[in-house]
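Sample intake sheet
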Amino acid sequence: MLVGDVPAYIDIYSAVFLLSILSRAATILFIVKQAAARATRLAGSLLAGMRRLDFRHRREREFLHISRSALLRMRIS
């Protein structure tokens, strides 16, 4: 009877050990996903903020674009 109980106890302990490892891995994976999502949101908000601060350059580029198209029209006609 003792010989048959040893493999059963080993089986139970290995199942508990594997469940603990899986739960830790799931926790670590969840934390990594949350950190990646926050980093993505932070990068997006930083880019949006930089675009808002860059309003002079956008107008200047649009003005240059209009001027170039006007020059091209002048050369064509």
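Comment: Residues 2-76 form one domain. The two ends are 104 Å apart (CA to CA).
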